[in-house]
Amino acid sequence: MIAIFMFTIVLIYFGTRASKRLYNKAVARVLRAPMSFYDTTPLGRILNRFSKDVEVLDNNLPRSWNYWLLTLSSQTGIIVLTIAYYHYFAVAFVPLLCIFFIFSNYYRASARELRRHDAVFRSHVYSRFSESVSGVATIRSYGSQEQFSKAVKMAINNMDGAYFLNFANQRWLSFRLDIIGTLLSFVVGILIACSKFDVPPAVSGLIMGNILVFAQSSQWLIRQTAEVENDMTSAERMKYYSSEIEQEAADHVDNVRPSWPENGEIVFSGVKMRYRDDLPLVLKGLTLHIKAGERIGIVGRTGAGKSSIMSAIFRLSEICEGSITIDGLDIRSVGLEDLRSRMAVIPQDPTLFKGTIRSNLDPFDQHIDLELWSALRKAHLVDETQDINDKYARIHLDSPVQEEGQNYSLGQRQLLALARALVRDNKIIMCDETTSSVDFETDSKIQQTTLDGFKGRTLLCIAHRLKTIIGYDKVIVMEDGRIVEFGTPRELWDQGGIFWGMCGRSGLQL
Asked: Does domain 266-506 correspond to CATH entry 3.40.50.300?
C-alpha cells in the first residue's frame, strides 16, 4: 500500500508538472503567433486546446497512466503465478493472448480515431456557440435566432453521436474479452481438476480466484491502454501548439537607437505584401515618402489596400519585397516590441480590457495621474473644471471598465482609445477609420483632439468619411494595392480624378 501510494503521488506530481510546462509554452507561442495563424485557425479549436485538452493533461492522463500501470503489473503477477504451478496453462494462454492482442489492437486503433473525431466535433460546438454569443445583437436584429439555434443543436448532436460511438466501441470489446476470460477460467478449472493431488487446495483456490479477477480486469486493462493512447492525443495537440506554431520575429534587437524614431519620417520603397504565401499580393510595389509631422489621409474602396499599409508598418504581416524605413532605419531590422511600442494606433473597433480607466490608459503604470487626466481632458471625456479627486464623477481614473468596455458607448470607447494614444505620446500615430461608427458630434470631438493633441506628429488616417481628412496635409488614394493619386486635397480636387469623384459623391466642395 505504501509503495502504491508513493508511486501514485510521484506519477501525478510529474504528470501535472509536465502539463503545466506544455501549457505555458503553448500560451507563449500562441500569443506570439503571426496573424496568419489566427486567420486560418478557428477560435473554437484554440479554445478546445486550452480547455478540454489541458483538463485531460491535468487530470485524466496521470490517472490513466496510474491505472494502466497498476493493472498491467497485477495481470502480469497473476499469469506468472498460474504458470508457476500449472505449466500447461502457457500452452492455452499463448493462442488466447494472440487473439487478445488482435482484439485490443483493433479496438485501440478505432478508439483513437473516434476520440479525434469527438475532439473535432467538440471544436465545432465551441465555434458555433462563441459565434452565437458574440453576434447575439446582429442575430436578433435580423431575426435569425432559429437558424443559429439549429446550427448549435446540430453541432451538439454531432458531438454526442461521436461520443456515443466510444461506448459502442467499448461494448464491442467487452463482449469479446468476456469470451476470452471465460475460456481462461475453463482452462484453469480443467488444470486444477487434473492436478488436484499435486497442488495444495489453498493454492488452487488462490489461482482460480485470481483467474476470475484476471478475466474481469482484462477489459479494464485494454480500456486503460486505449484511454492512455487517447489522452496522449491531447498531449500531441498541446505539443504542436507549444513547439511547432510559426512565430513572429524577435521582440528586441540591439541596433535600435533609444530615441528612435526622432522625427517620424516614413519611406516606402517598392513594397509588396501578401497576408499568406498562398494568397495574392495586397500591396503591389508601393512607393511613398511621408515627411516628419505630416498628416496623411488614406482613402479608397474596400479591398484597395488601405489597412494593408498599417499591417505592413506594424509588421502584422511581413512584406515580400521592398523596404519600409522610419527615420532612416529599416523596420525589418527592429524588434517587434521595439517597433510597435514606439507607434500608437487608434483602431476602428477600440479594445478595452476589464479593469479601470487608469489600467486601460496606462496598463504598465508608466505615467503619473496628471498625464492621464490631461489625456482625458484633451479627448473631451471630462470637463476642464472636473476635480481630479472627485471619486463620484461619472468618469474618473478609478471608474470601472467591464469586459470589452460594455458599460461605455461606442463613442466613449473610441475617445478612450484616443486618450490612450495621447498618453503614449508617440511620434507616429495610425488611425484606422476611427470615426466610421460614431455620430457627428463625437466625430468633431475626435477631429479636434487629433488636430490639437497630435500637432507635430506624423499621422496616418484611414478615412471612411472624406470630411475628416479634407484638411490634412496630403491624401493618398489607393486602388488595387497601388497609389493612384497622391497630393494635397486641393491638388487632387483640381486634377478631377478619383478623389474629385469621391468628394462629389459625398457632397463635398473645396
From this structure: yes
8 A C-beta contact, residue 479 and residue 489:
no
Strands 295-300 and 458-462: parallel
The whole-model pTM stands at 0.71
Non-local (6+) Cβ contacts of 276 within 8 A are 36, 39, 40
Tens-digit pLDDT profile for residues 154-180: 989 988 888 888 888 888 888 888 888
* Distance between CA atoms of residues 139 and 25, nearest Å: 37
Residue 10 to residues 22, 91, 325, Cα–Cα distance (Å): 18, 38, 55
| Residue whose C-alpha cell is 493533461 | 57
Q: Is CATH 1.10.3720.10 what the domain over 2-243 is classified as, yes or no? A: no
- Cα separation, 380 vs 448, in Å, equals 9
Alpha-helical regions (H) of 135-250? 136-141, 145-194, 201-243
Burial of 130 (0-12, 13-18, 19+ CB in 10 A): middle
* Domain residue spans of the chain: 2-243, 266-506
Residue 123 corresponds to which cell in the numbers above?
A: 471544436
